[in-house]
């Protein structure tokens, strides 16, 4: 299904089995878990919607997110 790309804000595609998020606009290709962590990092409101994932990653370093640039 279509979701907002966390990197370029265009339309990305979430696989039906939630295994992967792919964006053809910026060549994004990450796991859904990585996507959730990225979104939660950038938008606090998503942390509530995706509480299960955000909660499980609390306390982790955000250092890996900086490697996207
Ligand atoms: Zn993108």
Q: Total domains, how many?
A: 1
> What's the helical proportion of residues?
25-40%
Oligomer: single chain
Runs with pLDDT <50, length 5+?
Answer: none
Structural class, judged by helices and strands?
Answer: alpha+beta
What's the gyration radius in Å? 11 Å
Strands across the major sheet, in which order? 1-2-3-4
> How many E-type strands?
4
Order of helices and strands: EEEEHHH
Mean pLDDT: 78
- The end-to-end span amounts to 26 Å
Counting DSSP H or I runs of 4 or more residues, the number of helices is: 3
Strand content: 15-25%
Shape: globular
Bound molecules: zinc ion
Specify the biggest β-sheet.
4 strands, antiparallel
Structure keywords:
single chain, binds zinc ion, alpha+beta, globular, 69 residues, 4-stranded antiparallel β-sheet
Task: Explain the overall architecture.
The chain is α+β, with helices and mostly antiparallel strands and 69 residues long. It contains three helices and four strands. The protein has one domain (2-59). The model has no long low-confidence stretch (mean pLDDT 78). Helices cover 33% and strands 22% of the residues. A four-stranded antiparallel sheet has the order 1-2-3-4. Bound molecules: zinc ion.
């Amino acid at each position: 299904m279509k979701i907002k790309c966390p990197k370029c804000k265009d339309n990305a595609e979430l696989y039906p089995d939630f295994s992967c998020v792919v964006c053809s606009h910026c060549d994004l290709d990450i796991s859904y878990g990585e996507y959730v962590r990225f979104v939660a990092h950038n938008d606090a409101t998503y942390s509530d919607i995706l509480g299960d994932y955000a909660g499980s990653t609390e306390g982790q370093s955000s250092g890996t997110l900086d490697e996207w640039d």
